[in-house]
Amino acid sequence: MSKLSVVVGDYAHARPLAVDGYEVEPVEVKPVIGAYRRMIRDLEFDVCELAPTSYLMALQAGVRLTGIPVFLNRRFHHADVQCGAASGIRFPGDLKGKRIGVRAYTVTTGVWVRGILRDEYGLDIDTVTWVVDDDDHIEGRAPGNVERVSDGRSLGELLRAGEIDAAFSGNAGTGRAGAPRAGWSAPAEQPAGEDGPYPLFPDHEVLAADWYLRTGIYPLHSVIAIRGDLVDSDPGLPSALYAAFAESKRRQAEAAPEWSALPRLGKQAKQIGGDPIPYGLRANDVSVRALVKFSRDQGLLDADFPDEPRRLFADGDYPDA
């Protein structure tokens, strides 16, 4: 039986994983983001979770990988922009000409948020200086209005010092420092309040729900990628791998019916009125097309890059799951 090295994050709905015809060898990489670049640049693993934007850019760059429409993590992004206490920012239009911190320009969270700011609120994202403290997984596509932190300080430190006007929160910004590595973390983010950063959208949950109802876009993360040579030698592998992820999720739901009621997933299930982690092509058609559009608009994908989901994943059987 062939062995299959698999790297995914710590998701209850993705373990255990049993793929027909293969012996699965889980590979732990913490943080899992640290595996993305290793997969894209060196094809180090047989199967690896990737950021969706990085996956699309890798396809465009001709990296020998393909994928299946399994998105292990989903989240809305209206809460992700935190404004400096003295920035004076009150509305999205106030971001024009400002300096905003983000881990790397091509991180998927950044693509989603810039797309929302551009399409929903009319912000000219080219007027913003994007301040980064890490490399892109695929380099050469970031625009000229990206500035690299040169003195080793974290984005959180810069935000508190008033040297950037706003920043993304969590792993996309102030919740860590530098490139992903073991023990990847930064000092605790400064609590919101009179002297700390505050959200650009205080009513972010209402806005996210309204946006979803109007657009049908449910921002996707964590797509599953496979080495292309493995699919060449076994064209049935994508379908078998998809079935394995679907079965793992089904078993988790059966063993622990409350799994999708965890605070964030439960909230998102209510916002979309259904499964908070949907798999498949049909269930994710609108969201995949939106991510391609945002990535093209932001210069990360060529204008003629396809947005038809069937063309972006390996041939296979992918019933909604």
Structural account:
Helices cover 31% and strands 16% of the residues. By secondary structure, it is of the alpha/beta class. The chain has 2 domains: 2-75 and 218-311, Periplasmic binding protein-like II (D-Maltodextrin-Binding Protein, domain 2, 3-Layer(aba) Sandwich), CATH 3.40.190.10; 81-213, D-Maltodextrin-Binding Protein, domain 2 (3-Layer(aba) Sandwich), CATH 3.40.190. The strands form 2 sheets. Strands 8-7-6-9-5-10 form a 6-stranded mixed β-sheet. Helix 3 (108-121) links the parallel strand 6 (99-101) and strand 7 (129-132). Helix 3 (108-121) packs across helix 9. The model has no long low-confidence stretch (mean pLDDT 92).
Task: Give a quick summary of the entry.
This is 4,5-dihydroxyphthalate decarboxylase. The chain has 321 residues and is of the alpha/beta class.
Give me the Rg, rounded: 19 Å
Largest sheet, in brief, is: 6 strands, mixed
Assign the CATH superfamily of the largest domain.
Answer: Periplasmic binding protein-like II
Distance between the termini: 27 Å
The dominant shape is globular
Low-confidence stretches: none
Q: What letter string, H or E per element, gives the SSE order? A: EEHEHEEEHEEHEEHEHHHH
- Beta-strand fraction estimate: 15-25%
CATH architecture of the largest domain: 3-Layer(aba) Sandwich
Percent range for helical residues?
25-40%
Region (Disordered): 171-191
Protein name: 4,5-dihydroxyphthalate decarboxylase
Organism: Amycolatopsis acididurans
